[in-house]
Amino acid sequence: MGSTVVVAMDGPSGSGKSSTSRAVAHRLGLRYLDTGAQFRALTAAVLDAGADLEDPDAIAAAAATTRVESGTDPQHPTITVDGVDVAARIRTQEVTDHVSAVASVPQVRQRLLDLQRAIIGDGGIVVEGRDIGSVVAPDAEVKLYLTADPAARAQRRTAENGAADVDATRADLLRRDSIDSGRATAPAVAPDGAVHLDTTPYTLDEVVEQVIALVRQQTDQHTDQAAGRATGAGSAP
Ligand SMILES: Nc1ncnc2c1ncn2[C@@H]1O[C@H](COP(=O)(O)OP(=O)(O)O)[C@@H](O)[C@H]1O
Ligand SMILES: Nc1ccn([C@H]2C[C@H](O)[C@@H](COP(=O)(O)OP(=O)(O)O)O2)c(=O)n1
């Protein structure tokens, strides 16, 4: 696999972005970046700083001095805040409850946008989130928009968390969908040019196979186009 490819994977919670991205990156020898984990990490830092979560300026100030680092090995992704491992902390209900509010603050998004683009660098990476194909990497060679029925998403999340209350999980997913897609800065959208994949009827393995086939097809197309440009193929004599 060409090591400069960027695969942008967007979609709502529980659509399968993380598990699909990690498996695809591992299979294709690419790096992996979970941008949701970065927003969760800044949220944990903002909570620890005791900032007023109703006050965007207070959130921005608390986030401004926080150093977030992401390890991009798809088999062992890591996330630290000021050098401290926060992998478990960012999955707590407290962080989940507040992450969409923190992610709505423009200064928070700008700070992470700079970091995300620095990590993407020359590519060779699968990046997942809500604004990857639209804002972070609009020139990505491969753009995917994953969805699934809310019932399936809630069922998946409930099983993953070992929680009992599917209805509460579903309500929480829909609450975050609404904040994420309604915010003014970089709202969660289906990016222009993204291939829409409804994962509801497919197993994770089936989705991974479909995405790998698409990445191969799209990157072959790009290679063909580049070769065409190099030889002048397709242009007027
Ligand atoms: N196609 C699928 N079918 C069934 N379960 C899936 C599928 N894709 C992902 N899952 C499971 O659903 C849960 C949420 O998936 P995840 O990849 O974390 O979604 P997202 O990153 O979009 O929130 C995980 O436990 C994962 O193993
Ligand atoms: N690129 C991104 C990634 C996540 N976010 C926000 C919106 C999401 O509700 C939270 C958490 O994202 P995450 O991908 O961890 O959420 P789930 O694992 O799907 O529950 O962060 C964002 O605004 N932009």
UniProtKB/TrEMBL annotation:
Query: Which Gene3D superfamilies does its entry note?
Result: P-loop containing nucleotide triphosphate hydrolases (3.40.50.300)
In its UniProt entry, the species of origin is given as Nocardioides aurantiacus
Q: Where would I find the Cytidylate kinase domain in this sequence?
A: 7-216
Name of the protein this chain belongs to: Cytidylate kinase
Pfam (any one): Cytidylate_kin
On the tree of life, the source organism's domain of life is Bacteria
Q: Which InterPro entries match?
A: Cytidylate_kin (IPR003136), Cytidylate_kinase_dom (IPR011994), P-loop_NTPase (IPR027417)
| Main location (coarse class) | cytoplasm
* Binding positions (ATP): G11, P12, S13, G14, S15, G16, K17, S18, S19
UniProt lists the family membership as follows: Belongs to the cytidylate kinase family. Type 1 subfamily.
MF annotations from Gene Ontology: ATP binding; CMP kinase activity; dCMP kinase activity
What SUPFAM superfamilies has UniProt attached to this entry? Answer: P-loop containing nucleoside triphosphate hydrolases
Main EC class of this protein? transferase
GO CC annotations on file: cytoplasm
